[in-house]
Write a structure and sequence with these properties.
Largest sheet: 3 strands, antiparallel
Distance between the termini: 98 Å
Strand content: 5-15%
Strand order of the largest sheet: 2-1-3
Length: 158
């Protein structure tokens, strides 16, 4: 019997959870638990428990919770887009860094080629059709040197 009264009391508490207030609980001389919104007149203070019930959120609070949830979702989406933009920017920077490194190597090679042509009277190169070494004429050598200087001017900063 006391178990059933306790269950009823809990149901009463859960039913009252939509209202704010105080609920009093006590057990009478026969061991029967009681629940009320007012303190009993004939029970001693030791036997009475005072339970505070807090109000459930209002419909305004519910709409605020939904709005906050929506804002959190929007912020998460914005953060995701920002992360994607940052990743794309990092990839673009990596490509630019690789291109700059390649350009530095190309400039080094062009300057080395120009130095070799200036220091040596006769310059040989491989003929792409036959695969054999061919000695450049003075006119061909001068034309190649001018072309290399133009490329150095166009692609190399110093």
């Amino acid at each position: 019997m006391p178990l059933r009264s306790g269950i009823i009391g809990l149901m009463l508490l859960s039913a009252c959870s939509c209202m704010a207030g105080t609920i009093y609980q006590w057990v009478d001389a026969q061991g029967v638990p009681h629940f009320s919104d007012s303190a009993p007149n004939n029970a001693s203070g030791k036997d009475v428990q005072k339970l505070e019930i807090h109000a459930a959120p209002s419909s305004d609070a519910s709409s605020e919770i939904k709005q906050l949830s929506k804002e959190q979702d929007q912020q998460a989406q914005a953060d995701s887009k920002d992360a994607a933009r940052a990743a794309a920017a990092a990839k673009a920077k990596a490509r630019a860094d690789a291109a700059a490194k390649d350009n530095i190597e190309r400039c080094r090679q062009l300057r080395e080629d120009l130095t070799v042509m200036n220091e040596h009277g006769r310059v040989r190169e491989m003929d792409p059709k036959t695969g054999q070494a061919v000695i450049l004429s003075e006119d061909d050598k001068e034309a190649r040197m001018k072309e290399i200087q133009k490329q150095i001017s166009a692609f190399c900063s110093s």
